[in-house]
Design brief:
The protein has about 240 residues and is α/β, with parallel strands linked by helices. It is about 45% helix and about 10% strand. It has twelve helices and seven strands. A seven-stranded parallel β-sheet has the order 5-4-3-2-1-6-7. It is globular, with a radius of gyration of 17 Å. About 5% of the residues have low confidence.
């Protein structure tokens, strides 16, 4: 089954790791969507908080790289391409499609290894697909290297989904779940990116404010998209 056939006509939700969802008990609500999309370590985080984040993952957007997302204090390594055991965990968690890696990784030898490892372990209905060809247009609009969260929203909208709801995406504002990214780290990252956006606006670093502006524009122009109130508030600078 091709990816467009898999997602066509479905009501989709992208569930991010923003802290505001903790304690809301919306896991069953999220799992009720036809298509549940998560980013990077979203399935792992959901497995730790199913009552708030749900259990289901149909599509996973992932960098296929572990350097930035695994915490030693939670028994995870911090560096290297995605490992076979990680891909096997995704299978156990019901992930049907893996989308990635991030375009910057595809241009590296490390990226080639990551893709080879990933595809050698994919079986059954699980597949990997590249990011859409429209990425170059997104890169031009962003003027920098967009985050994988931004890329996932852009990518899925290129397909014939019925609708898309965004939850748990606040552009480093308000923090993440502690085990995903401690508050002090997310605040440090936010301040760093904001500083670099002023000092080096043409750098390849992520720019959360620009991502927010782009997503706000998509929400206003594409009637398929709805967002949580907290996501809407994050659009306001």
């Amino acid at each position: 089954m091709e990816f467009n056939e898999f997602v066509k006509g479905k009501k989709a939700i992208i569930v991010g790791p923003a802290l505001y969802t903790k304690g809301q008990g919306r896991g069953k609500e999220f799992d009720s969507y036809d298509l549940v999309i998560r980013i990077n370590e979203g399935p792992w985080l959901a497995s730790r908080h199913p009552e708030d984040l749900g259990k289901k993952t149909d599509v996973l957007y992932h960098n296929l790289h572990e350097r930035c997302f695994y915490r030693k204090k939670h028994g995870m390594s911090r560096r290297g391409t995605v490992r076979p055991e990680r891909i096997n965990q995704w299978e156990e968690q019901g992930v049907k499609w893996i989308v990635g890696p991030h375009p910057w990784l595809m241009r590296t030898k490390e990226g080639e290894i990551a893709i080879a490892v990933c595809e050698s372990l994919l079986r059954g209905q699980r597949r990997r697909k590249e990011l859409c060809k429209e990425f170059d247009k997104l890169r031009s609009l962003a003027g920098n290297s967009p985050s994988l969260g931004m890329i996932s929203i852009w990518d899925i909208l290129q397909y014939e989904i019925e609708s898309l709801h965004l939850v748990g995406i606040t552009f480093l504002r308000g923090g993440y779940y502690e085990e995903y990214c401690p508050m002090e780290e997310s605040e440090s990252l936010r301040k760093f990116y904001e500083k670099m956006a002023i000092e080096a606006p043409k750098s390849e670093l992520h720019n959360p404010r620009r991502d927010a502006a782009l997503i706000k524009g998509l929400v206003e122009s594409d009637g398929r998209i709805t967002v949580d109130d907290e996501v809407q508030e994050a659009f306001i600078d």
